Amino acid sequence: MNIQTLKGFRDFLPKEARKRQYVINTFKKVFESYGFEPLETPALEYEELLMGKYGEEGDKLMYRFEDNGKRRVALRYDQTVPTARVVAQYQNDLPMPFKRYQIQPVWRAENTQKGRYREFLQCDIDIIGISTPLADAELLTAVASSIKKLGFKKFKILINDRNVFKQLTDRGTVEVKNLPDVIRTVDKIKKIGREGVLNELGNKGYSTEVASYILQSLETQKVTPLIAEIFKYMEDMGVDSTCYEFYPLLARGLDYYTGIIFEVEIEGYTAGSVCGGGRYDNLIGMFAGKKVPATGCAFGFDRIMEAMEEANVFPANLETTKVLVTVFSEELANKSLEIASRLRAQDINTEIYLEPSATMEKQLKYADAKNVPYVVIVGEQEIANNTVILKDMQKREQKQISIEELVQDLLPARQGDSETSSE
RNA sequence: GUGGGCGUAGCUCAACGGUAGAGCAUCAGUUUGUGGUACUGACGGUUGCGGGUUCGAAUCCCGUCGCUCACCCCA
Questions:
Q1: Residue A421 belongs to some domain of the structure
Q2: Three-state SS for A400?
Q3: A1, A79, A145, A364 - which has most CB atoms within 10 Å?
Q4: Do the beta carbons of residue A109 and residue A61 sit within 8 Å?
Q5: Measured CA to C1', what is the nucleotide nearest A81?
Q6: Which domain holds residue A395?
Q7: Does the model's pTM come out above 0.80?
Q8: In this structure, is residue A110 part of a structural domain?
Q9: Which nucleotides of B are covered by protein (CB under 7 A)?
Q10: Alpha-carbon gap, residue A339 to A326, rounded angstroms
Q11: Which of A279, A311, A343 is the C-terminal boundary of a domain?
Q12: Domain contains A60
């Protein structure tokens, strides 16, 4: 038997899982502060529902199989298509605009590489059923709030209008059917540089003159009226103007965007954007049989985690257990259990050492290994005068206090200590 | 799908043709109510798997499986 995880699939041990939970909870809090509501959809969908929605490549990378009832099924490949299904299936039950967030794993059978896995968490917010620029502005504002709330000081949302590419076809510089390909190439500019883009366009049959004309006309593009309107709203919502800018070279690979497109870059984090999205008015309605405008984005959860690690913005204490109550001996265990119960009654996360005969050394080492910030010791002397010893593991200090004082001391001192609580 | 790198103890790695080792981790001690940093000891490997070359293979060769990085692609 192979004791290992599947290629591209990962375990998250408590230390890592706690951080992930913290990020998820932070996202949820911000999203909900803007009125986004949670949506969950099944891991499996009918194969035919997903097939053909992500292009040839997508079909190849989709996990597909036959279930025990001989149904052709496929694992969720993104969260947008299932959402489109939901919008079609519950047309009369969803208030419009439908603002939802969805934080669930998706599966793609790609070849793995750094930062790319076969099972990964997608973290989406979308505003569905309304096409106003205000909706785009609110989405961008919620994105800025999220990044800020996670602790990033310096970041930038690069924003473009997909329509700036339209002029290339309007003027006949690029054929309509070739536009997505050209866009894909331009999108690589940050990675392969200006020269690289020109070369690649050259390889695709564009002359040197045309290729540099394409780049130049994009580089000199002025803010479009749509973007200007969105920027005005963002300003009204108090978004710091240094956090976003018009960037006409931004392309994004997808060809389904119809309006604004954007990406978020964290200063100092070079592995790429941590969030991307835009308006896509023709996608959500595909199952409903009518046009349903939508604007939304996805946070790259793994990159967010990596960027947070590098920027060192995780709170110091994400440990879930606040205090370990040691057990002095078999005879005195009842006292420890009683104290633990009293602490838990006050919502203080309390752990008891589960081997009553263990030495104090062993119990303290356990607390240490688990990074539990406080330890309570209840021995004969303490019981005699109705006190306990509260030991601060970080400061290496301890004091003898009454049980009432113990409860008081361990209650959250400041708000923020309980930030991580969740189900 | 294409190309590079790597598989040795739970983890990180050494040994690179001559009896498989270290650090960390784990467990037990260093006497009787106190941790992260000390000392002692124990546990732990058919060197990914299969074949070949050789007196002798962790080491060289072939195959295979796995991992990893990059390209393609990325809704």
A1: no
A2: strand
A3: A79
A4: yes
A5: B75
A6: 323-410
A7: yes
A8: yes
A9: 1-2, 26, 28, 33-36, 66-75
A10: 10
A11: A311
A12: no
Instruction: Report the domain count for chain A.
Output: 2
A254: helix, coil or strand?
coil
- Which pairs count as long-range contacts for A130-134, CB under 8 Å and 24+ apart, including other chains? A130/A96, A130/A97, A130/A293, A131/A279, A131/A281, A131/A293, A133/A226, A133/A229, A133/A230, A133/A233, A134/A233
Quickly list H helices, A62-219.
80-89, 133-149, 166-170, 179-186, 189-203, 208-219
Q: How far is the CA of A8 from the C1' of B71 (A)?
A: 18
Helix (H, G, I), strand (E, B) or coil at A44: strand
Could you tell me which of A387, A388, A322, A327 has the C-alpha nearest to residue A360? Answer: A327
Distance CA A1, CA A5 (A): 12
Q: Which residues, other chains included, contact A357 with Cβ-Cβ below 8 Å and sequence gap of 6+? A: A329, A330
β-pairing, A155-161 vs A244-246, is parallel
Tens of pLDDT, residues A4-44: 788 899 888 888 888 999 999 999 999 999 999 999 999 99
Tell me the C-alpha distance between A368 and A380, whole Å: 24
How far, in Å, is the CA of A320 from the C1' of nucleotide B41?
36
pLDDT in tens, A238-287: 999 999 999 988 887 667 888 999 999 998 888 888 999 999 998 898 88
| Residue A39, CA distances (Å) to A42, A83, A103, A346 in order | 10, 8, 8, 32
